[in-house]
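Exercise: predict the structure of this protein bound to pantoate.
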Amino acid sequence: MEILRTNAEMSRWRDECYRKKQTVGFVPTMGYLHRGHLALVEEALRRADQVVVSIFVNPTQFSPGEDLDQYPRDFERDLDLCRELGVHAIFAPEVEEMYPAGFQTRVLVDRVTQNLCGLHRPGHFDGVALVVTKLFCAIHPHLAVMGEKDFQQLVVVKRLSKDLNLGVEIIPHPTVRESDGLAMSSRNTYLSKEERQSALSLYRSLLAVREMVKEGERRVEVLIDRAKAIIEAEPHCKIQYVHVVDEDTMADIAEVTPMAVMAMAVFVGKARLIDNMRLWPG
Ligand code: PAF
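Solution:
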């Protein structure tokens, strides 16, 4: 497994794959890999001849006061996990390599960034769009596998890849959950034992709401109230938002449609957790 630190090293590796007519699959990460990431890597390995994983904690997607400094990191462990799976290359640039002095370009994706996390983390998706565009330009992968847990991010990346003709096929991967339903996240490491117990209410609320839709409830207001009640009944949980949106536009909807997704962000202790679920039965 090659460890590439610069854009130039990355380009050389990619050129070699292209010369050998090998397809390149890509999994972007901020490291501290868990089973959710590994599932994305496995999917990329199934679909492409060569797979590169990026490990880069991107400062531009964190606002002042967020957890950039505390974000968990364990580079050696990440390398071991990738090596075991058969990853071909790691792209792990330093911040100065990605954002050298004088850097001033931005990538703004408009409407789909306005709601949900975009409302509550101003600038977050500008940072995500910028780094993903830079990674796609450095790597030129044929495909990138990304998790549905970061549902709005997935929509944003699909949009920018299409709008900027980057030619990267975005492959969504279903959210990977612990056996008790907690969606896997590097931020789960912030949870105490009691907080982790409370955090299960996110998944429980999504399942309860989906059941209500199955039984015929279509009024979004009623569904949101139910989800909030389940989460608020738990200690340690502070809801940031619960919305039901159209999967394509990210706009709020009032009645459940086949495109309806319930998405939520909840602080459990100091961990900000997100989760989502499609609501339409079947
Ligand atoms: O989902 C993440 O880990 C990050 O937002 C990403 C896509 C690697 C960009 O920094």
